Amino acid sequence: MLGRLLAYFHTGFHRCKSSAGEAFKMAFCAVAAYVFAERVLGHANPVFAAIAALLTLQFSADWRTRRALEVAVGCALGVAAGVCLTGMLGAGPAQAVLIVFVAVLIARFLNKSPVFATQMAIQAALVAMIPSSPGSFLHTVTDALVGGAVAWLITAVAPQQRLRGQRKAIRNLAYEISAILYGASRALDVNDSALAWHALVRARNSHAVVAEANEALGRALETTTISPLHWRHREHIRNSRAAVEKLDLALRNSRVFSRRLTHAINAVALSDRGTVRFSAFLKRVARALTVLGDGYWERDRQLRDEKVSQALGQLTQLAAELEPGRFEATTIEGQALVVTFRPLMVDLMEAAGATHAVAFAALPSLLAPRQGLPAAPAGWAM
């Protein structure tokens, strides 16, 4: 019991420590929006400016540019819905319940965002339950716009999401594919189709890793778009997005390969020497993927380019070995296993910066017989 309590306090302390900067920005932004609306615009008690700023800067993985618009538009539509419905239904507790209910349904119809729905509900409730003065509609909408604008300005100057998040997400995605290939190699080492199936299950359950990478890239793209301090990173973010797309394709192809590997092990599709060679080949590809992930993790551009280039060189050399005869694949199942890996290899080389034409050219041709093996069908050229 004491250990769990200490762990709870330890976690809470680290959470507070990591959130201190965001908490200060939220406090500063709320007060700045309120003071601006009160002293510059002359609004009396512009509490909605502070509310809008806090809703925009809340602790969330969502994107702040979109959230600022949702707060401002939700405020305007909430006040409009409240005014219209109050004029039609009148004032009172029962009418207020109906007004807020209708406002929430309208918000859910227009947008799925919970921030948008909450903002509309708050404004409709305040209009329905608090007597308003003439001109309060325009003041309320203006206050919401001020709060969103101040929060957006603070985000541009000191963005919440640094680029570290997307670098970590890309590395995790590359590591995930590497782990799948290591699992496939282990299945070949012990000739166990169950381990190949485990690799397939892991590949199938990797959606969260891809989603995390796409979300991190989206936030990084927003940061490099609105923050002048990070404009110099825009090209890198575009390259990273292209790399994630190719790694996503490679992950999908790893499922196809792992499924094929399961059948190949059960059918004894490779000779003992071919099995050893192919297992070693998969380990080398996995190590090259680790280098690629480390390259995208690097913050320094020169180090990043060096490691990514190193990974591309290793993958290109490995691609030249993807020919069934090299792994003594004399059966249809064995040849299909090797050929199935070729699209995955192309995706990995493209993730490392190669064009599709260059990556495809790195593969050995399968159109001519080699080492006494029959020629593969033309459709298997990849």
Tell how many strands the DSSP assignment holds.
0
Average pLDDT taken over every residue: 81
Helix/strand/pairing category: mainly alpha
CATH class identity of the largest domain = Mainly Alpha
The low-pLDDT segments are 369-382
Number of domains: 2
What can be said about the biggest beta sheet? none
Task: Characterize the overall form.
Answer: elongated
Radius of gyration: 29 Å
Distance between the termini: 59 Å
Beta-strand percentage? under 5%
**Percent helix among the residues?**
over 70%
CATH topology type of the largest domain: Methane Monooxygenase Hydroxylase, Chain G, domain 1
Number of helices: 14
Q: Architecture of the largest domain, according to CATH? A: Up-down Bundle
What does this structure look like?
- With 382 residues, the chain is mainly alpha-helical.
- The chain folds into two domains: 21-157, no CATH class; 164-380, Methane Monooxygenase Hydroxylase, Chain G, domain 1, CATH 1.20.58.
- The protein has helices at residues 2-40, 47-56, 64-89, 93-110, 114-129, 136-157, 164-190, 193-204, 207-226, 234-266, 272-297, 301-319, 332-351, 356-361.
- Helix 1 packs across helix 6.
- The protein starts with a helix and ends in a 21-residue tail after the last helix.
- 41% of the residues are buried.
- Residues 369-382 have low confidence and may be disordered.
Keywords:
single chain, 382 residues, Methane Monooxygenase Hydroxylase, Chain G, domain 1, 14 helices, 77% helix, elongated
What can be said about this structure in brief?
This protein is mainly alpha-helical.
